[in-house]
Write a structure and sequence with these properties.
Layout lengths: L2 H11 L4 H8 L1 H4 L3 H8 L15 H13 L8 H22 L4 H7 L3 H9 L6 H19 L2
Helix pairs in contact: 1-2, 1-9, 2-4, 2-5, 2-9, 5-6, 5-9, 6-9
Amino acid sequence: MTKRMELANAYHDKKFNCAQSVLLAFGDKTGLSEETARAIAGGMGGGVGGCKEEICGALSGAVLALGMLLPHVEENDQAAKDRVYAATSEFRRRFTERFGWCRCGDLLNNEAGEADRKWAAELGAERVCPVFIMETVRMLEDYLQELGL
């Protein structure tokens, strides 16, 4: 387990949502203060505001980190927009390939694979959310390395 994975899990243990936990684990790369990262990702947990009908919070946190690391901030900067969209799309593809779904409710209803459920039990977690968080962090670490970030 990497230091960032442990950090993300520790944030989740402190009752920060999945998006906050992932984004906070990359604070050294994004340059966001803890307070700002917590605020930005505050409504993204639980499938956006707890409704469980939208994108997984862990994936949302990773997308927010990618947005910070591949910023599209200038008007008419199509190259930057294309770059962050391509990176986000690829990461979402990888997440879905790994877990089978990207929607919070689908992930929770299907409870991932047996190995992920076992890992969650070893962590003392009632649900597999910590596994989604830590695995998303690991995957994002690998992806950022591929991107040279």
